[in-house]
From TrEMBL:
InterPro entries: DUF2157. It comes from Shewanella baltica (strain OS155 / ATCC BAA-1091). Residues 11-174 form the DUF2157 domain. The chain crosses the membrane at residues 41-63, 75-94, 122-141, 153-185, 205-223, 235-257, 269-285, 292-315, 321-342. This is DUF2157 domain-containing protein.
Length: 387
């Protein structure tokens, strides 16, 4: 929507269209959500909260009545809940498949998603089943006192729900799976830190998380191009890239203030890898797979690293007052320049919709405004005049 406003405002500034023609075009190409759209959004949110509340309620029920329930009652109740959830998912899966195959009113993307992985209700039920699987594994450990380390619980939990995530192919389960993997690796490294403390310190452990989440991110980015639907998990991609770049920025800043000038092999390798990743990411997401979000992460990460380097260089032997002024000015100018560049790049990488691209400025006078739309839609010409 913002891209349409910017493009039409640009046409108004260049004199290609008048304000009335811009208002007409805006009413023709924009669609505001109606009451049914809001009802669908609220229904989906209630569904997800209901699925998570159901799974959490089952787990809290066992925790509250732990002394009152017998061993077989505990296992029977939670296993029955898991079986019912999986059965409900299978029924909803094939029901959504049949409905999407018979329906011709939805778009092709929605048909593909529903026919392969079931509707949103099926995914919500499977998410509840995945949470209950974790409760079952914890119940086994508490009942039989297996003596397993906590990292084994989360690793086994992630392994068990991996088929669920692969079948469903939606963000919620992928995000849960990746979170469990990171959590199990973190607990594992912390539990056995005495074994490799000499050659794998906290910086090395942080590097493991960086490599893991970057590998997951690039795997989903590349697979999303080749397999329709199953590997499309934008929320997971945002989370993995944000976590990886945040850890990368933290590690580089740590090295700058710690042993950046010592020139050891680890620091040199990490700095080289960071710069190589920034260059590689710029080439991929600027020219091969144009995306704004990873470019923004890399740009602001570089600004933060530059600020840390300036602090290290300037505050050792110089007056801190002037250094604070210079570094503050650097952050403001660099952030502003990066934001302006990203905004201009966004206009190029995100073209207008197909209906927008088919309309030329010349035949604007042929478009007649819809009286009903005029009462409900905004006016780009008025927006431009206010700007």
């Amino acid at each position: 929507m913002s891209q349409i406003k910017s493009q039409v405002c640009g046409w108004v500034e260049q004199g290609h269209v008048t304000q009335e023609q811009a208002n007409t075009l805006y009413r023709q190409v924009t669609v505001l959500p109606d009451a049914s759209s809001w009802r669908g959004l609220i229904a989906n949110l209630l569904l997800w909260f209901g699925a998570l509340s159901f799974a959490s309620g089952v787990i809290f029920f066992f925790a509250y009545n732990w002394q009152s329930l017998g061993r077989f009652a505990k296992f029977g109740l939670i296993e029955v809940a898991i079986v019912l959830a999986i059965g409900a998912f299978a029924w909803l899966y094939y029901r959504a498949n049949s409905l999407s195959a018979a329906s011709h009113s939805h778009s092709h993307s929605n048909q593909s998603n529903d026919s392969r992985f079931g509707g949103t209700t099926a995914n919500g039920v499977l998410l509840a089943a995945s949470v209950l699987v974790g409760g079952l594994l914890a119940l086994v450990g508490q009942t039989y006192q297996t003596g397993a380390d906590p990292w084994q619980l989360f690793a086994l939990w992630a392994l068990v729900i991996l088929p669920f995530a692969w079948v469903a192919g939606f963000d919620g389960l992928w995000l849960l799976l990746v979170g469990l993997i990171n959590l199990s690796i973190g607990i594992f490294l912390d539990s056995f830190s005495h074994l490799w403390g000499a050659f794998l310190d906290e910086q090395g452990q942080l590097l493991i998380f960086i490599c893991l989440n970057l590998a997951i991110y690039y795997a989903f980015v590349l697979l999303d191009r080749n397999v329709a639907g199953r590997w499309h998990a934008p929320i997971l991609e945002y989370a993995c890239s944000l976590f990886a770049m945040g850890c990368f920025t933290w590690l580089i800043t740590w090295l700058i203030f710690d042993d950046f000038f010592k020139g050891d092999g680890f620091s040199t390798g990490v700095i080289s890898g960071y710069l190589a990743h920034l260059v590689l990411g710029f080439v991929i997401f600027r020219y091969r797979l144009p995306r704004i979000y990873p470019l923004a992460l890399g740009g602001f990460s570089l600004i933060a690293v530059g600020a840390a380097l300036l602090i290290r260089l300037m505050f050792e032997d110089n007056d801190p007052i002037g250094g604070f002024l210079f570094i503050g000015l650097y952050i403001i100018l660099a952030s502003t320049g990066l934001s302006i560049w990203l905004k201009e790049l966004s206009r190029k990488l995100k073209p207008l919709s197909q209906s927008m691209s088919e309309l030329e400025p010349e035949p604007m006078s042929e478009l007649e405004p819809d009286p009903a739309a005029r009462a409900t839609q905004g006016k780009v010409g008025d927006i431009h005049e206010q700007q």
